[in-house]
């Protein structure tokens, strides 16, 4: 007798695999943890297989679960494509999303991938600009939705998360020990004034080793241990590590990641993208990944 797989349970299995656990999967799916666990348990009972390895501290896919994951992704992709193409005619057009370059990772690639799968006839034009430029374009009506990094949230905005700034440098780098402290500074960076004020209050001399509008230029300066930089915790790129300075550098302020949706732009596609952005940061807060290895103080 043929048995039919439950697509809802398959979606739960994929979410657990992609987000690394039941807790984060539940946030993304907007379900309770018990509901996600029950869906996977029913799938295991129907197949007569253990899909999750629960013997350790965390939850990992079993060998059968890894095999089922591939099938699940293909089935869900086909299901979502069919539904989108046959029924969601209102999900068409283009959405302009602007945000600072330094918060593209870790969430934006996954968000856009999921949005494209759900709304294949909608195009997202992604613009990586500084917060000031994003807000100027938003005020001019040139963007449907923007993300910003700010020390407050303007009326009409929505805060997705609130994160501390941390000092970052090259892996194994030593330039942070030098005085004057050599900085990689973005000319229009939202963090610039706060970082410089913190150094001045701490009585630490500094100099601009690199000053540029180009994020790539700043990345290069940090990655070769020419200068240090400050980024929001959790957004550190692969070329850099958080500096464990042991008090040699001042603690920095916290900043908001805010979302603004242009009035009148709240069509179903924009709402769907906004929901994915909310869920991404909510899941990140619920089960934040371990920080990257820090540079040790010797």
How many angstroms does the end-to-end distance come to? 67 Å
- Count of beta strands: 11
CATH class of the largest domain: Alpha Beta
Q: What characteristic shape results from the CA principal axes?
A: globular
Quickly count the domains. 3
Strand content: 15-25%
How would you name the oligomeric state of the polypeptide chains in this document? single chain
Q: Flag low-confidence runs.
A: 288-298
Tell me the helix content.
25-40%
Mean pLDDT comes to 89
N-to-C order of helices and strands: HHHEEHEHEHEEEHEHEEEH
Corresponding CATH architecture of the largest domain: 3-Layer(aba) Sandwich
- Indicate the structural class: alpha/beta
Radius of gyration: 22 Å
Describe the secondary-structure layout.
Layout: H1 7-19, H2 22-29, H3 33-47, E1 52-53, E2 60-61, H4 63-87, E3 93-99, H5 108-118, E4 122-128, H6 131-139, E5 145-150, E6 157-169, E7 181-186, H7 192-201, E8 206-212, H8 215-223, E9 229-232, E10 241-242, E11 254-261, H9 268-286
Parallel strand pairs: 3-4, 3-5, 7-8
Antiparallel strand pairs: 1-2, 5-11, 6-9, 6-10, 6-11
